[in-house]
Amino acid sequence: MIQFDKKSLRKEVRTRKKQFSTEELIKESCPLIQQVLNHPRLQSAKTVLLYNSLPDEVYTHGLIKQLHNEGKTVLLPVVISDTEMELRLYRNPNSFETSSYGILEPIGEAFTDFSSIEFALIPGMAFDKERNRLGRGKGYYDRFLPLLTKAYKVGICFPFQFLPNIPTEETDIKVDECIY
Ligand code: ADP
Ligand code: MG
User: Fold this and answer.
1) Distance from Cα 69 to the centre of ligand 2, integer Å
2) How many Å lie between the centroid of ligand 1 and the Cα of residue 142?
3) CA-to-CA distance for 122 and 49, rounded, in angstroms?
C-alpha cells in the first residue's frame, strides 16, 4: 500500500512541476541556492556532495562551479546499476558524460572516502516537516546515505514539493534539514 501512496504523491508532484517552464524553475531556484550558500555547515565544509540538476530539479549547475572555484572538493553522484550509485570528483565542466537518466555525470574513478564528506545536498521529489524524503522510486539515496557518516544532509526542493506528510518505510533515510 505504501508504494501506492508514494507513487500517487510522485504523480502529484510531477503535475505541479508541469505548471512551470524550465526557465521559471531556474529562477525559482535562486533564493534556494542562496540559502545553501549562506548555510554555516556548507561554508565550513571542505568536501561536499552536490547533485547535477535535471531540468525539473532545483538548479545546481552554477552552485557546483562556484563551490569548486572556491576550492571545495565537490562530489557528484553517478548511477552505476539499478540499485547503486557511486561518487566522483567534479573537475571541470568538460569532463562529463550523459547517463541513461539524462544526468550529466563526471568521468573518472570512484571517490570512496565517505567519512570526509561534511555537507550533502540531496534532491527529492518531495520532503516534509519531519524531514522525510520521497525520491524517484529507486531508493538510491536510501542505500547510499548511511555511508555518509559525518555529512550534514540538506534536502532541497521547490516550495510546491514540500508536502504535509510523506509515507515512509524503515529503509527511508531522513535529511537533517530541508531548504524549500
Ligand atoms: P525513493 O527513496 O527513491 O523514493 P523508495 O523509498 O520507494 O524510493 O525505495 C525504492 C525501493 O528500494 C523500495 O522497494 C525499498 O524497499 C528499496 N530500498 C530502499 N532502501 C533500501 C535498502 N537500504 N536496502 C534494500 N532495499 C531498499
Ligand atoms: Mg525512499
Assistant:
1) 33
2) 6
3) 8
